[in-house]
Design a protein that fits this description.
Blueprint (H helix, E strand, L loop, with lengths): L12 E4 L5 H12 L3 E4 L4 H13 L3 E4 L7 H8 L6 E4 L18 H29 L2 E8 L11 H21 L4 E8 L11 H8 L9 H12 L9 E5 L8
Parallel strand pairs: 1-2, 1-4, 2-3, 4-5, 5-6, 6-7
Helix pairs in contact: 1-7, 3-4, 4-5
The chain binds nicotinamide-adenine-dinucleotide.
Length: 252
């Protein structure tokens, strides 16, 4: 029996966007614990640096890499010279939550921002890292998506869902185009995560009760899935959209 590899990402370099808090922070921490050197991106330099410092305090290897993923020039400058093996496109919620609105009432700049953040930035960063990955013959592209891509919801997230769905489509095509180059591409479509409210609130309890496993998602759940997708053991998954939502059944 082969021993279990506790550091399957040793020697790999990962970039996690929007990792200054929430889900992205959890992903960065788990990738680092699995041995990857992690570039912690965020719009906020203070948050990016704080998470990188936290990783180093725990014995991991990380650097803060603040830039706006919707800014093409800033993204290019930031990743220039880095050999990124694992790209996790997590940034997807604009500062302040993105002003959810019924679609007809949504100002064009708000839906444009959802597309810039959730689709164009994924495309741009992918184009920046894939040539190096292909040259090295190994790479991982991960999109953090949402159940809103696959399901109509009356909570003002039409543009967000459409942008996430566009990203999932890109991922399917990347998997086919770049699988032969040793690069896999996958989406993790999340259900509702902890932090949106507290258990005990009737609204939150109702949501939790609709999830078959009886709890909301946690950043570590997503981080562990990213570790698996990034490891050799996860290399068979390619071009997939995996719903991490406790078994929530889609419907109206
Ligand atoms: N929280 C949920 O319930 C939930 C559900 C489904 C999917 N998701 C997805 O999970 C991902 C993370 O969500 P979260 O809830 O942890 O978000 P969050 O709002 O807690 O954190 C997002 C981070 O991204 C950063 N950010 C925002 N715009 C940026 C930009 N242009 N460039 C760089 N960084 C930027 C923010 O500064 C912030 O630190 C998103 O893609 C989101 O769509 C979240």
């Amino acid at each position: 029996m082969e021993p279990y590899d506790a550091r399957p990402l040793a020697g790999r370099v990962a970039l996690v966007t929007g990792a200054g808090q929430g889900v992205g922070r959890g992903i960065a921490m788990r990738l680092a614990a699995a041995g990857a050197k992690v570039a912690v991106n965020d719009l906020s330099p203070a948050r990016a640096d704080a998470v990188a410092a936290e990783i180093r305090d725990h014995g991991g290897d990380a650097l803060g890499l603040a830039f706006d993923v919707t800014d093409a020039a800033a993204a290019e400058t930031a990743v220039n010279g880095l050999e990124i093996d694992i790209l996790v496109n997590n940034a997807g919620v604009p500062p302040g939550g993105g002003r959810p609105n019924r679609f007809a009432e949504m100002p064009p700049e708000d839906w444009q921002l959802q597309i810039d953040l959730n689709l164009a930035a994924l495309m741009r960063l992918t184009q920046l890292v894939i040539p190096g990955q292909a040259k090295r013959g190994w790479g991982r592209i991960i999109q953090i998506s949402s159940g809103a891509s696959a399901r109509g919801l009356a909570i003002g997230v039409a543009a967000y869902g459409a942008a996430k769905a566009g990203g999932e489509s890109l991922i399917r095509h990347l998997g086919v185009e770049y699988g032969p180059a040793g690069i896999t591409a996958n989406s993790l479509a999340l259900g509702l995560m902890e932090g949106v409210g507290r258990a005990g609130d009737p609204g939150v309890d109702r949501l939790i009760n609709s999830i078959p496993i009886g709890r909301l998602g946690r950043p570590d759940d997503v981080g562990e899935a990213c570790v698996w997708l990034s490891s050799e053991a996860g290399g068979l998954a390619n071009g997939q959209v995996i719903h991490l939502n406790g078994g929530t059944v889609f419907g109206r």
